[in-house]
Specification:
By secondary structure, the chain is α+β, with helices and mostly antiparallel strands. It contains three helices and eight strands.
């Protein structure tokens, strides 16, 4: 089991008990990143409180050898997708996918995530071509945030009464 998985198993009950969701855990040399979210978005006060609680728990349980910096933050507008539940939550969104080297076809592509089930995902790319992938064939995937058009100065959004 990887260090990130050990940390995830350790802190997930704490994060869930706070009313938040543990989105991801990344561990690299000297750094532990924990991404948390909450329905409607997570604010700085909640992140600060969780950071302190997670830090205390990690100090107590000591699952990571050596020194490291703990970062707790929101996953942001573009977020990595790792679990079937995360993929299912973002069906209808634009995604960027990188497949593992053994997979036929383009290794990097983007399109609309049109389906996600317990076995894998379907992404609609280009001219309505669908690409089906098992989760085990995906090296990395993330949502893509698309900015809407900027309103022209002096024009208001039309409202109906």
């Amino acid at each position: 089991m990887s260090t990130a998985d050990r940390v995830r198993d350790l802190i997930e009950p704490l994060v869930t008990a706070s009313g938040s969701e543990l989105v991801d855990v990344e561990h690299g040399p000297g750094l532990l990143r924990v991404y948390v979210d909450r329905e409607g978005g997570i604010d700085l006060d909640a992140i600060t409180a969780l950071s302190e609680q997670i830090s205390d728990l990690l100090d107590l349980e000591d699952p990571i050898p050596g020194r490291y910096t703990l970062e707790v933050s929101s996953p942001g507008l573009e977020r990595n997708l790792r679990t079937p539940a995360q993929y299912q939550r973002f069906v209808g969104s634009k995604v960027s996918v990188k497949t593992k080297s053994r997979v036929e076809g383009d290794r990097r592509f983007s399109g609309e995530l049109t389906d996600a089930d317990d076995d894998g995902i379907t992404v609609t790319v280009g001219n309505d071509q669908q690409r089906r992938l098992a989760y085990d064939d995906i090296e990395k995937a993330r949502t893509i945030f698309e900015w809407g058009p900027t309103p022209k100065p002096g024009q208001r959004k039309a409202t109906t009464s």
